[in-house]
Design brief:
38% helix; ligase activity; BPL_LPL_catalytic; Octanoyltrans_LipM/LipL; Lipoate--protein ligase family protein; BirA Bifunctional Protein, domain 2; 8-stranded mixed sheet
């Protein structure tokens, strides 16, 4: 079968509000047919706590801790729970819902898109697999005891040795799927847990102690020193293989960058959006 061509963007380190604005702009342009499907990789400057679309800042986030660590803070357009973007590489996929062989259901679309992550981890020499939660865990997902993304693995997220190594979130708008997620290079569990509010200190301690059993970063899975550059190569090739596509470098025009900045200022850098819940 002939390979589909996708746009490939390496954004490097960007501000949290710009990162989310660019993902939204790419979704919008793809919905209008102005650009084809996109695979994008990016990092965060400063290190940032991102929260899901439906999360409550007042109920779930310790903003004093966020400020104490000098972190950025942004609300994503996607669901899911809080993610500390510090020692990681973030990916985003923008593709039409009617893309050839793309499943209609959210969980099955996760499986197809996340196949690129699966192959990427294997390219790094790590035996990753998809998580398939038990019935008990599936029930827990409906009533999470914390706002921490890596506290539980959802359907078809990536695990190594039974522990979550990549967390993803998805939204569908204007006939387009936006899926983005974090590939962990390293994880500071104490710092992560300190950013959230809990019903009690006992529950906080349970989550803190439990995280190493539920989530693991690449640096704890191999003696090799794996860099962002290593991950860019491994995961870009992983997506090419899993989705049978060819990545073509794409550079934003000055006009496109202006649109991104407009979205950023209107939405993701605006407190009305960030603290809406």
């Amino acid at each position: 079968m002939e390979k589909m061509k996708w746009n490939y963007i390496q954004s490097g380190k960007c501000s949290p509000s710009f990162n989310m604005a660019l993902d939204e702009a790419l979704l919008d342009w793809h919905s209008k047919g102005e650009i084809g499907p996109v695979l994008r990789f990016y990092e965060w400057d400063p290190a940032t706590l991102s929260i899901g679309y439906f999360q409550s800042v007042a109920k779930e986030i310790d903003m004093e801790a966020v400020e104490r660590y000098g972190l950025g803070f942004v609300r994503r357009p996607t669901g899911g729970r809080g993610v500390l973007h510090e020692h990681e590489l973030t990916y985003s996929v923008i593709v039409s819902e009617d893309y050839p062989d793309m499943p209609e259901t959210v969980t099955e679309a996760y499986r197809v898109i996340s196949g690129g992550l699966l192959e990427g981890f294997r390219n790094l020499g790590l035996e990753a697999s998809f998580s398939v939660p038990s019935e008990q865990v599936s029930e827990q997902l409906k009533r999470p005891k914390s706002g921490v993304c890596f506290d539980t693995s959802s359907w078809y997220e990536l695990v190594v040795e039974g522990k979550k190594v990549a967390g993803s979130a998805q939204t569908r708008q204007k006939g387009v799927i936006l899926q983005h997620g974090a590939i962990l290079l390293s994880l500071d569990e104490d710092k992560l847990v300190s950013l959230f509010k809990f019903a009690s200190e006992e529950i906080r301690e349970q989550v803190r102690k439990g995280l190493p059993e539920k989530a693991v970063a690449i640096d704890r899975l191999t003696a090799r020193d794996i860099s962002v550059a290593d991950c860019l190569e491994a995961f870009s090739k992983g997506f090419e293989k899993a989705l049978n596509l060819e990545l073509v470098p794409y550079v934003l025009s000055p006009e496109q960058l202006k649109v991104v900045k407009e979205i950023e200022n209107r939405k993701y850098a605006n407190d009305e959006w960030t603290y809406r819940k």
